[in-house]
Amino acid sequence: MASATTASAAAPALAISDLRKVYDNGVQALKGVSLQVEPGDFFALLGPNGAGKSTLIGIVSSLVNKSSGQVGVFGVDIDRDRDGAMRLLGLVPQEINFNMFEKPLDICVNYAGFYGIPRAEALVRAEEELRRAQLWEKAHVMSRTLSGGMKRRLMIARAMMTRPKLLILDEPTAGVDIEIRRGMWKTLKDINESGTTIILTTHYLEEAESLCRNLAIIDRGVIVEQGPMRALLAKLDVEGFLFDIDGDLPAQLPVIEGTTLSATDSHTLDLDMPRAMDLNRVFAALNDAGIRVRSMRTKSNRLEELFVRLTGDEAAAKREQAA
């Protein structure tokens, strides 16, 4: 693989081959994981607790020693040129880990200093990143006074001070409310659109579906599915819709063979139906029942369904039998 000075933009942003990790207590956290993330991608790494996500991220960011396998960041092998690979990578951990008694501006500038960035340049970058994170007005206050959402945005701003080609975010919106989360989504989209490759781990599956173009699902140390988000969701044989209804729903809903139809409230219907079914058949049945649909929208739980299907005990048992 290339050295840091010859890191190739044509190489994968992250290339993992047969990665294994066995801890001293015998636990196999990773069992031969292979994964590739292309430059410019917004990639989701999903999995239940204990699946191996944190171990994988720890190895890529040189915080955990691997047992075997290869990891490359833009063509730079982490074994041959660890420092070079780390200069290409930014990490936003799940835990808030900056000095609460420092100001956001100082946190960003000092972080840049660790990587040899001159102070004058670091000050310019800090203003750019704090503005992008909507924190410039808080640049000179004690960080402990920031809200939870602001602290998480500061973590992202700090990581971007080194202009990483690959940014890894571990549960970046954990514990913040939906309004703040959506604001952070915009910041992350801006970072990605500016050319930075992003890998995101999250337990909010609607977050992954909204932001990411490709994903991998890991369970019990094994990648159980990976590929384009749309293609993986298309594998589901059930599709869900919500219908907004004019007027009140009747006491008795029509029975449409092959579907599950229920009322979430007096003006909304929840429908699950086979993907192969003609939706016009549903509209005809609703019309015959005197139900007029004003608008409809796709339910956002498709990724959750795929996730549960691939990481449940039944799926794990099938994988063990096939192994």
From TrEMBL:
Transmembrane segments: none annotated. One of its GO terms (molecular function) is ATP binding. Pfam families: ABC_tran. PROSITE patterns: ABC_TRANSPORTER_1, ABC_TRANSPORTER_2. It comes from the Bacteria. Residues 14-245 form the ABC transporter domain. Keywords: ATP-binding, Nucleotide-binding, Transport. InterPro entries: AAA+_ATPase, ABC_transporter-like_ATP-bd, ABC_transporter-like_CS, ABC_transporter_ATP-binding, P-loop_NTPase. This is ABC transporter ATP-binding protein. It comes from Pseudoxanthomonas mexicana.
